[in-house]
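Fig. S4 source data, part A: sequence.
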Amino acid sequence: MPTHALVGWREWVGLPGVGIEWLKAKVDTGAQTSSLHAFGMKEFTRGGASWVRFEVHPWQRSADDAVKLELPVHDRRRVRSSSGHAEKRVVVLLDVRLHDQVIPTEITLTRRDAMGFRMLVGRELLAKGFLVDSAASYLGGKPPRAVRRANKRPPGEEHPHWPHRRRSDG
């Protein structure tokens, strides 16, 4: 029988292929596909293929350290939210680091303004070797205290221990 890593209902994850080392995520066994909060999403064509341009704001309640991304559109899916609202979403492929594993993952892009987490980890990713302990949090570990504090700092206040990483070059 394969070994499964235990995750809590919320975990710190990373998107290593795009330079996002830490992002707080909610583990959602009710969601089939993982989703990411995308700001300023705009689709365009490059070389005859569909692409999408958007920003990821790694810190909750802050636009600091925003990362601008341009990725090929992998698919489009109709997704039904927990409130029953259905919408068609763009799907991209990104590597997700959960615990010490990096897993290529299909991720839908959406505006999650009303939600507390920038990312949801869905069943498709969890099925690749994870079990969920709904009473636990951060079983994969936490980033250093300075990173956790950056996630709680007021908007506009720079991180005290990092050079400012805003990626505004397009």
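Fig. S4 source data, part B ends here. The two ends are 47 Å apart (CA to CA).
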